């Protein structure tokens, strides 16, 4: 190889995930393993898990501010309290989607620390929904 040639990258390209791939992720399980401890499960929860949740909720028409408000409820009252509320989000289908997520988080979330982690995750989901909506609006 001469000095002007760039080295060949021998690593294969990372496979990309589609919205459908992300939407099919088991968010409930990701919360159950990602909330209690830092590490790869938490990283996956805040990465692919948040993207998948955002895709699902965005497809249901949920507004980012509704998820951000739910995060504040979790932060204020705790994830177990929030999971028992009759109306988590304005749309019944969205509530039916989110309730198992919060119930799963509630089984492993330590008070205060786990509640805060769950609230931060919900805020991440809200931000991602907002990014998706803005991206679509710009594409029109």
Characteristic key phrases:
mainly alpha, globular, 69% helix, 140 residues
**Helical content band:** 55-70%
Please count the beta strands (DSSP E, at least 2 residues each).
0
Shape: globular
Query: Helix segment count?
Result: 7
What do these coordinates show?
With 140 residues, the chain is an all-alpha fold. Helix content is 69%, strand content 0%. The chain has 7 helices and no strands. The N and C termini lie far apart (47 Å).
Present the secondary structure layout.
Blueprint: H1 19-23, H2 27-34, H3 40-59, H4 64-77, H5 79-83, H6 92-108, H7 113-139
Helix pairs in contact: 2-3, 2-6, 3-7, 4-7
Outline of this structure?
With 140 residues, the protein is mainly alpha-helical.
